[in-house]
Design a protein that fits this description.
The chain has 304 residues and is an all-beta fold. It contains one helix and 16 strands. It has a single domain, classed as Porin (Beta Barrel), CATH 2.40.160.40. 2% of the residues lie in helices and 60% in strands. Strand 4 and strand 5 form a beta hairpin. The termini are far apart.
Length: 304
């Protein structure tokens, strides 16, 4: 396992900016910001209201800007255009305990610039299911919100010649996460880290174990609009084919600004983020994304 020694500290510290306090007993309540806008399955530190169902959609559009090895681009022979959606459900079971699911839907257009040929890949990936437990609650006197996840990845993919093994190949997986959220005034800081590992699935392929660190800072301009920034670092171990390592470990760190709109009476919120590469390192030749545009839509329903 080859962690880049410099990336994780930078990722965790990148957005640790939190300022501004509400003073005065008679001051109106400060508006509260929406959570992370980018696609992250981990918990952060907050829970979900009992008896409420959350339906979320994360959408990501991105294009590769060349094939890279190490930290350098080696050619631009292949271009990938990706449209990735993640459908999520959350339900509050009891106070401090909820269940969450995430199912990816994706389409990728792969173009060979040398031959001019292209092909469409994708459809559905494997579903992750997690129990989310809040251990510390800032609203009840703790210094911050703290939560953990215990998760399972179940085979839901449609394995075919058009599916992408890295997104889903009918394999089982297991993992966990820890998340922290700190709020003060109209500011909110979220930090979550989760790790998952997998069994061998279709095509004799075993997806790599991965670690993801997501950091998000949000500032509520008013009760309807937020601004902020987000950061995501991914570390992937080597995948395996027919039981043999493919020597394709990689590190990726993306960060950028975000905005959000929320309408509390309807239980609706939307976030938009533009993410750009800060650090990229690949053991094998890998198409790498030059940017990511991410959209999050969230609607909460009261089932009780």
């Amino acid at each position: 396992m080859k962690f880049s020694k410099r990336i994780i500290p930078l990722s965790l510290a990148a957005l640790c900016t939190c300022a501004g306090l509400s003073w005065g007993a008679d001051a109106p309540a400060a508006p509260k910001p929406f959570g992370p806008a980018i696609s992250a399955f981990g918990p952060a530190g907050t829970g979900f209201p009992v008896g409420k169902l959350g339906v979320l959609l994360n959408y990501q559009y991105c294009e590769t800007d060349g094939i890279r090895k190490g930290s350098s681009e080696i050619n631009e022979n292949v271009k990938l255009t990706k449209n990735v959606g993640v459908v999520k459900f959350r339900y509050g079971i009891t106070e401090g305990l909820d269940v969450r699911t995430a199912t990816p839907l994706y389409t990728v257009y792969k173009k060979n610039k040398l031959t001019g040929t292209g092909e469409h890949l994708g459809w559905i990936g494997d579903t992750a299911i997690a129990l989310h437990k809040v251990l510390m609650n800032q609203s009840k006197g703790s210094m911050f919100d703290l939560a953990v996840d215990v998760g399972l990845v179940v085979p839901t993919t449609d394995v075919s010649s058009k599916s992408i093994d890295f997104v889903g190949n009918g394999a089982w997986g297991t993992g966990g996460a820890v998340g922290l959220t700190y709020s003060t005034g109209s500011h909110r800081l979220d930090q979550e880290i989760h790790v998952y590992t997998f069994t061998e699935g279709a095509h004799d392929y075993r997806k790599p174990m991965y670690v993801r660190s997501t950091t998000a800072w949000g500032y509520a301009v008013n009760n309807y609009f937020d601004m902020g920034a987000e950061s995501q670092f991914d570390w992937n171990d080597a995948s395996e084919k027919n039981g043999k390592s493919q020597n394709d470990t990689k590190n990726e760190w993306y960060a950028g600004p975000k905005v959000a709109f929320k309408y509390k009476p309807a239980g609706f919120a939307a976030g938009l983020a533009a993410m750009f590469p800060m650090v990229r390192w690949y053991e094998a030749n890998t198409p790498s994304e030059g940017f990511r545009i991410e959209l999050k839509l969230s609607k909460t329903f009261d089932l009780m």
